[in-house]
Write a structure and sequence with these properties.
Layout lengths: L5 E2 L8 E5 L3 E5 L2 E6 L2 E5 L6 E4 L8 E11 L3 E10 L2 E9 L14 E3 L6 E4 L2 E2 L1 E2 L8 E2 L3 E2 L12
Length: about 160
Amino acid sequence: MSLPPENVQDYPRPPLVEPFDGRIQVTLGGVEIVSTTDAWRVCETHHAPTYYIPPDAFENVEMLPARGQSWCEWKGQARYVSLRAGGITAQRCAWAYDRPTPRFAGIAGFYAIYPETMEQCRVAGEIAMPQPGSFYGGWVTSNLIGIVKGGPGTEGW
């Protein structure tokens, strides 16, 4: 599956949430821990899409509660987990909204992963790069057009 071109500047604010029609794969410690076609994506102006993965799609991995929480003005309160697979532990690398706002009910209990914490993340077969900056969890793919925020000078947009 080839991803169609999308301009991140055209993504809405507040963000859209929609089922993703493609395969999401994640590798940690040489082990494929996710391979699913049952994911959602959240797209917000100037952000790379963030993919939300159902808990039952995680295999060959241990999920460990992680400290801290965060608040999103659109989705609500998030909790964090660490993932362990293949002898590697990625600390505080994924988050979930257990009780998101009604608009984001589809992602309740699904996990998003910071791609920079994994060995590899793939979207429809393409290796995804992490969204710039340490705060954002977007997955950058070659079909994205426009400026993805997170780099120097863009965090405040």
